[in-house]
Specification:
Layout: H1 3-21, E1 36-39, E2 44-48, E3 54-57, E4 63-66, H2 74-84, E5 89-93, H3 99-102, H4 105-110, E6 114-118, H5 119-126, E7 149-151, E8 155-159, E9 162-169, E10 177-182, E11 187-189, H6 210-223, E12 229-231, H7 240-262, H8 267-273, H9 286-301
Parallel strand pairs: 4-5, 5-6, 6-7, 11-12
Antiparallel strand pairs: 1-2, 2-3, 3-4, 8-9, 9-10, 10-11
Length: 305
């Protein structure tokens, strides 16, 4: 094997490892995390702390949550919810498998909260993750952390004067993504197949795909009206036009990477071409996430052998 071929293979492996480990960061000091509560609708709120965005619907039928952040924050999150509602927390929906969205599952499950998710998400939580590189792996999640109810098709909650629709988004950020649509509040919560900070993260190890992400964004754009609030897994809320701009950015960078792949460019050549360049100034956290995204696109678009 020629040296250049070996170097290209190593570069692609490095890109793949970066894509896998991109979410792995030094654990924060959770004791210093404060929970910020924002009222979005008459009885719908978001909670920001450390990790993914949480949604909270309140009313006489009890409280419904979207995602749980990290386990050490559960007491703070529950306290913040009790500041806006004295009713019980009855249900929680996981938008995808990552621990910044599911880490508090066990604590909430032990409190009697009924957790809902896609079947694929539950299956991934129930399986151990073997160590790999810098990733220490983890054992299977305990029973209390596993969603009690799983679904393949759409599910609707009718509670607190709201119709909450759970819409499966296949193979997007992961293979277990769910879009949560609060119809009366005119709110769409996407989990991490849309983030308004950083470039997208196609978690191929957990079943994500470029085409699935684009299709999921298309579904979300189709549901959104001019006044719809689109709440990403991370970052500020956007409107329909903001989501269209995000989708168009992905398409533009995809086409640039595809051209480089077609020309036979190596992974390092593709990174050096910097196909995200004219978007970097517009994307918060671009520096930290651009190489990961380009690597994921290259892995998605390179010809199968």
């Amino acid at each position: 094997m020629k040296f250049s071929t070996v170097r290209s293979a190593l570069a692609l492996a490095a890109l793949a490892l970066w894509a896998v480990s991109a979410n792995a960061q030094a654990p924060p000091d959770f004791s210093k995390v404060e929970i910020k509560t924002t009222k979005v609708g008459s009885n719908f709120y978001t909670l920001e702390g450390q990790g993914g965005m949480i949604g909270v619907l309140t009313g006489p039928d009890g409280t419904l949550m979207v995602d749980s952040q990290f386990a050490p924050l559960t007491d703070k999150i529950v306290a913040a919810i009790h500041q806006i509602s004295s009713g019980p927390i009855r249900f929680m929906i996981n938008t995808h498998v990552h621990p910044d969205h599911t880490g508090g599952n066990e604590n909430l499950g032990k409190m009697g909260v009924v957790i809902f998710s896609r079947e694929e998400l539950r299956d991934r939580l129930a399986q151990p993750i073997p160590p790999s590189g810098a990733n220490p792996g983890r054992p299977p999640m305990p029973a209390a952390a596993l969603p009690l109810v799983t679904y393949r098709g759409r599910v609707t909650f009718h509670m607190d004067g709201e119709d909450v629709e759970l819409i499966p988004i296949p193979r997007a950020h992961t293979d277990g993504d769910t879009l949560v649509y609060f119809k009366n509040a005119d709110v769409l919560m996407t989990g991490d197949y849309f983030r308004s900070v950083g470039y997208p993260n196609i978690d191929r190890v957990n079943g994500g795909s470029l085409n699935g992400m684009l299709e999921g964004l298309g579904v979300t754009i189709g549901l959104a009206g001019p006044n719809t609030k689109i709440i990403p897994g991370h970052g500020p809320t956007v409107d329909r036009m903001g989501l269209i701009a995000h989708r168009d950015m992905i398409l533009a960078i995809r086409d640039r990477v595809a051209k480089l792949v077609h020309e036979g460019k190596t992974p390092e050549d593709t990174l050096a071409a910097h196909p995200t360049g004219d978007y970097d100034s517009k994307i918060p956290q671009a520096k930290e996430t651009s190489d990961r995204f380009v690597g994921q696109l290259y892995a998605e678009l390179k010809p199968a052998k």
